[in-house]
Amino acid sequence: MYPSQPYNHYLHSGYANPVTKSWQGDSTILKSQLIYPIFVTDAVNTKTEIKSLPGQYQISTDLVIEFMKPLVEKGLKSIILFGVITNTESKNPQATSATDKNISPVIKSIELIKKEYPDICICTDVCLCAYTNHGHCGILTSDNLIDNEKSIKRLGELSLSFALAGAHVIAPSDMMDCRIAEIKRVLFEAGIGSRVAVMSYSSKFASCFYGPFRDAAGSGAKFGDRSAYQLPAPSRQLAVRAALRDQEEGADFVMVKPAGPYLDIIREVKDAVRVPVCCYQVSGEYAMLWHAAVAGGIDLKSGVIESLISLKRAGCDIFITYYTPQLLEWLLQ
Ligand SMILES: [Zn+2]
User: Fold this and answer.
1) Where does this protein hold Zn(2+) (predicted)?
2) Helices (DSSP H) in the chain: which residue ranges?
3) In the chain, N or C: fewer CB atoms in 10 Å?
4) Domain 29-330 fold
5) Residue 138 C-alpha to ligand 1 middle, in angstroms?
6) Ligand 1: distance of its center to the CA of 43 in Å?
7) Which residues of the chain have pLDDT under 70?
8) Ligand 1 centroid distance, CA of 286 (Å)
C-alpha cells in the first residue's frame, strides 16, 4: 500500500528506534547543572519542615553539614544559600544582620561548608528582604519608596561579605537597578573580582508562585508589594532588556524566575545574551508538581524530569530546583 500523502509528511520513521529517538533532541541533565536552595537560620540545633514546601527544611547553621552529607554523597555539586533570621530583633531597616558575622547564618554556613566540602560550589542569594524589618528588598526613603542608590550600595556590601567568607557565586535577587555594576565594582576593588562570579536574577517577575518561598525565608513584605521592582508578568521587553543590561554590567550568568510559566522568556533571553542562562524552578512550581503527584494526577519522577527537559529545550543551562535531592538519585551523572 503506497502512502496517500508525500513521504516527507510521515514522521514516525525518524524516531521509531530508541537511538534515533534520542537523536531528536538532547535531554541530558547533569548533576553539575543543578543548584539546590538551602535555607539556613540563626537558630540553634533546629531543623523545621516548611509546611508549604513539603520535604524542604529551614536548618540552623550548626546542622548544615550533617544535612548536606547524604546529598554530597549522591553527587551534589552546588547549593544556593538563603539566610533566614528567626530573631526578629535582629531585623532593621538597614539589614545590618546580613553582614554581621556573629548573626549572619549565610556567612557562618559558607565558612563551615568551605571547610567540610571544599568542592561544593557555593552560591549565595543576595537580597535585603530577609534581614529588613519592613520585608522589602531594598533600603527605603522616608516615604517608604525604594532608594535605589542606597540599596545597591548596601547590596554591594552584602556581596562583599559573602564573597570574603568564601562564596563562589554572588546571586543578587533584589531587582534594584544597576546593582550588578555596583557588585562587580566592589568585588574588583577588593581584589577578588576575577574569582567570584555574579549570577544576576535578571528577569525576575512579580509572581504568585513565590508564595511557599516567603514562608521558607520569612521574607514577606510588611506593607505594599514588590511590583515596583519585580517585572510585570506580561512584559517580554523588560525581561530581555534586564538580561542584556545585566550582561553589559558584567553578570557572568543571568536568570529567569519563575521558570515553567515563563518558557517563552527563557528562549528570548537565551537568544539575546551570550552568557549561560539559569532558571529558577520556584517554590510554587515545586509545590504544584508535588501535590499533583500526591493526588495521583502525575508520576512525580516523570513530571519533574519532563519539567526540566522543557526548561532545557527553552534554553536553560543551569537549574535551581528544590527537586535536587530526588534528581541526584534519578540522574546517572
Ligand atoms: Zn528580596
Assistant:
1) 127, 129, 137
2) 18-22, 64-73, 105-116, 148-165, 179-189, 211-217, 236-248, 263-272, 283-294, 300-314, 324-330
3) N
4) TIM Barrel (3.20.20)
5) 8
6) 21
7) 215
8) 19
Alpha-carbon distance 217 to 61, whole Å? 14
Q: What is the pLDDT of residue 211?
A: 82
With both helix axes pointing from N to C terminus, report the angle between 148-165 and 105-116 in degrees, rounded to the nearest 10: 30
Integer angstrom CA distances of residue 325 from 196, 256, 329? 26, 22, 7
Instruction: Confirm whether residue 278 is marked as ligand binding.
Output: no
Q: Report whether 324 contacts 36 (CB < 8 A).
A: yes
Cα 296 from Cα 167, distance rounded (Å): 40
Q: Within 13 Å of residue 320, how many CA atoms lie on the same side as its CB?
A: 26
- Per-residue confidence (pLDDT) for residue 282, from 0 to 100: 96
Q: What is the pLDDT of residue 289?
A: 97
- What residue has cell string 517554590? 283
Domain extents in the chain? 29-330
> Which residues does residue 278 pair with via DSSP β-bridges, in sequence order?
255, 318
